[in-house]
Amino acid sequence: MSDYDDQNIFARILRGEIPNATVAETEHTLAFDDITPQAPVHVLVIPKGRYVSYDDFHANASDAEIVDFHRTAARICAERGVALPGDGFRAITNAGVHGVQEVPHFHLHLIGGRPLGRMLAREA
User: Fold this and answer.
1) How much is the pTM?
2) Residue ranges of domains in the chain, CATH in brackets
3) Annotated catalytic residue 109
């Protein structure tokens, strides 16, 4: 597990140093529109706590943080019109070098609003 970097962009957003287009905010969670959206709906959902990755968050966050995070994500899917029984969405989190994680603060990408294609190419 990597140490948490207090200067990562999401930590700076949480401190109010960098503006964001807030979609939802709760006691434990902040969600905002991605600045380089990959689809009509592309929201980032982040915990307010100092968690580096999916496994770090789920191993160390309180039950209240985990429930709040997931319920907030579900509410955003419904509000943005991508929740089932609609056309659906993709929820992606990246971790570490092999996962191509760009920001060392756990975050969930909620992406939808168009066909997204295969997530990974099939191996030959």
Assistant:
1) 0.94
2) 9-112 (3.30.428.10)
3) no
